[in-house]
């Protein structure tokens, strides 16, 4: 019974996770159309790529048992994020290109180091521990990326930069994988996704409080005049560049 419930929550988590990985398509459609990355940052996509690679590696049977559903969604996420990074590199300025290329090289080096150390130097529990801790740390970092948007919502009392369905699926994704981790007694899945579940709940609560204030013409938005430290006019869909991980 527990295995069946775990499978159901894992499949649901895969569906929610895929939706979250595809959310930035709106941003990249704009980038390709304008042939410019404008003021968007490529760093979140590179860091999400690292998280997906580490989580996909952790879910493999040779690292942790009964976690293939973790590998499937994060493997798909790694492919999607890599495509995002490549598109970003094509259209970003030369200076930004050098920075993102350097960060991408570092990310791939970190993943390669974790993979080779866990594969050739560690076995059994120690292999699971290393890969699990690495995946957990970066999952929490990725789940924490919307904190800037939450601060903005509280500051402006407007949910213009925090789309409802994005917040909803952050909550559903975090919840499903949190339950999956609890059922499988896997702290490396349960802990980061419990954090994500709580963060998603906070976003939904804020949406319920400020849902009537959505437009850029809200007096509070005009007074503060910024989104993530940028003028509101510069980033009409800034929130859409926040990737989420499972």
> If you average the pLDDT, what whole number results?
82
- Give the CA-CA distance, first to last residue: 24 Å
Query: What order do the helices and strands follow?
Result: HHHHHHHHHH
Number of helices: 10
Strand content: under 5%
From the spread of the alpha carbons, the general shape counts as globular
Sheet of most strands: none
Assembly of the depicted chains: single chain
Low-confidence stretches: 217-244
Q: Over all CA atoms, what is the radius of gyration? A: 19 Å
Helix share bin: over 70%
Strands, count: 0
Report the structural category.
mainly alpha
Write a structural description.
It is a single chain. Helix 2 packs parallel to helix 4, helix 5 packs antiparallel against helix 6 and helix 7 packs parallel to helix 9 (187-210). Residues 217-244 have low confidence and may be disordered. This protein is mainly alpha-helical and 246 residues long. The relative contact order is 0.16. It has 10 helices and no strands.
């Amino acid at each position: 019974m527990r295995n069946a419930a775990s499978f159901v929550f894992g499949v649901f988590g895969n569906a929610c996770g895929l939706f979250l990985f595809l959310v930035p398509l709106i941003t990249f459609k704009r980038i390709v159309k304008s042939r410019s990355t404008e003021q968007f940052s490529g760093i979140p996509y590179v860091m999400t790529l690292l998280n997906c690679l580490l989580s996909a590696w952790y879910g493999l049977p040779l690292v942790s048992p009964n976690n293939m559903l973790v590998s499937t969604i994060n493997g798909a996420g790694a492919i999607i994020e890599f495509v995002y990074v490549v598109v970003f590199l094509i259209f970003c300025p030369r200076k930004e290109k050098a920075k993102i290329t350097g960060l991408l090289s570092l990310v791939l080096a970190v993943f390669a180091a974790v993979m080779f150390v866990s594969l050739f130097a560690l076995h059994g529990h120690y292999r699971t521990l290393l890969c699990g801790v690495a995946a957990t740390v970066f999952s929490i970092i990725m789940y924490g990326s919307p904190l800037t948007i939450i601060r903005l919502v509280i500051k402006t009392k407007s949910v213009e930069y925090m789309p409802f369905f994005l917040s909803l699926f952050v909550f559903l994704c975090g919840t499903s994988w949190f339950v999956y981790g609890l059922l499988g007694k896997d702290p490396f899945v349960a802990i980061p996704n419990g954090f994500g579940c709580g963060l998603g709940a906070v976003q939904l609560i804020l949406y319920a409080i400020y849902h009537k204030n959505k437009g850029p013409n809200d007096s509070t938005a005009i007074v503060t005049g910024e989104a993530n430290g940028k003028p509101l006019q510069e980033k009409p869909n800034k929130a859409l560049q926040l990737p989420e991980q499972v």
